[in-house]
């Protein structure tokens, strides 16, 4: 209850900010994009993680104005970085979208607004949804996703393999990107049978012609295995933790 009350004023008080985790191409190790992640710095409670406050924001409805701000901020940042660091394929920006946002009536409007004011190509915006968000209200979600697709944004299935869902959703919802959850990446340090799960997930994505991203890559051994499996992209502490915007810019400058 206290968090919920505090969250109401957090946005206006400038206590929310985005950090950006680089996404790298596994073959070249070049940064090809970022995932925007919310942070809340409360004046007395200190740093509150999204695992704690995003569920509160969802239940209270605060996620809608917060999500609108996240979309505006992340796309504005992407526009700035794309201009400063032009590439054949522009830097991508991934934004997490929760079940409540997806089911609500304003997400499409807020995405369109963010695209228009930032001017980025719609295809460089990746919306990350979890399997659980998809199954919460599949009919409403399917409609929203069709509208988002019409805008030209891409759709990523986040935390893939951990949700309560089935493979049929991959086709039904016309996903573009598969993000393999870090609990599976961790398995790469285990037995051959465990590693076979990652092999299967990467193959599934490749067969369906999806872009495959491995999350939570922490060791060189994991990176090497994923590269050998022809996984396309990766993020994780081995490459970089989520960075403040100015740190992320330095990284882009360093690889230019
Ligand atoms: O940054 P961290 O790994 O602590 O994020 C924890 C969780 O919070 C992740 O599951 C992530 O999807 C979620 N999260 C982070 N930023 C956002 C955001 O801007 N919007 C929503 N809806 N969820 C977010
Ligand atoms: O659910 P989602 O994938 O959106 O959440 C991303 C979260 O994973 C972020 O909170 C981020 O801080 C965390 N994260 C990113 N890279 C790593 C990593 O290499 N190891 C671990 N343990 N967590 C990571
Ligand atoms: Mn995510
Ligand atoms: Na994830």
From TrEMBL:
It comes from the Bacteria. Residues 1-256 form the EAL domain. This is Diguanylate cyclase (GGDEF)-like protein/PAS domain S-box-containing protein. The lineage of its organism: Bacteria, Bacillati, Actinomycetota, Actinomycetes, Geodermatophilales.
């Amino acid at each position: 209850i206290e968090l919920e009350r505090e969250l109401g004023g957090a946005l206006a008080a400038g206590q929310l900010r985005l950090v950006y985790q680089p996404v790298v191409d596994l073959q070249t190790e070049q940064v090809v994009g970022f995932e925007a992640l919310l942070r809340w710095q409360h004046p007395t409670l200190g740093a509150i993680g999204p695992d704690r406050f995003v569920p509160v924001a969802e239940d209270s409805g605060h996620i809608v104005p917060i999500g609108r701000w996240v979309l505006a901020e992340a796309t504005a940042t992407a526009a700035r970085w794309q201009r400063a660091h032009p590439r054949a394929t522009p830097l991508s920006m991934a934004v997490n979208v929760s079940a409540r946002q997806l089911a609500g009536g304003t997400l499409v409007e807020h995405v369109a607004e963010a695209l228009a004011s930032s001017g980025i190509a719609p295809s460089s915006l990746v919306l990350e949804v979890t399997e659980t968000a998809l199954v919460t209200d599949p009919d409403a979600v399917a409609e929203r996703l069709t509208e988002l697709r019409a805008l030209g944004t891409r759709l990523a299935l986040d935390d893939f393999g951990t949700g309560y869902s089935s493979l049929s959703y991959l086709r039904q919802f016309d996903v573009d990107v598969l993000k393999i959850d870090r609990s599976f990446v961790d398995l790469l340090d285990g037995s051959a049978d465990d590693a076979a799960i990652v092999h299967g997930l990467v193959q599934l994505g490749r067969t369906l012609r999806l872009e495959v991203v491995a999350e939570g890559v922490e060791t060189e051994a994991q990176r090497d295995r994923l590269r050998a499996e022809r996984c396309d992209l990766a993020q994780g502490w081995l490459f970089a933790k989520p960075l403040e915007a100015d740190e992320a810019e330095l990284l882009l400058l360093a690889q230019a």
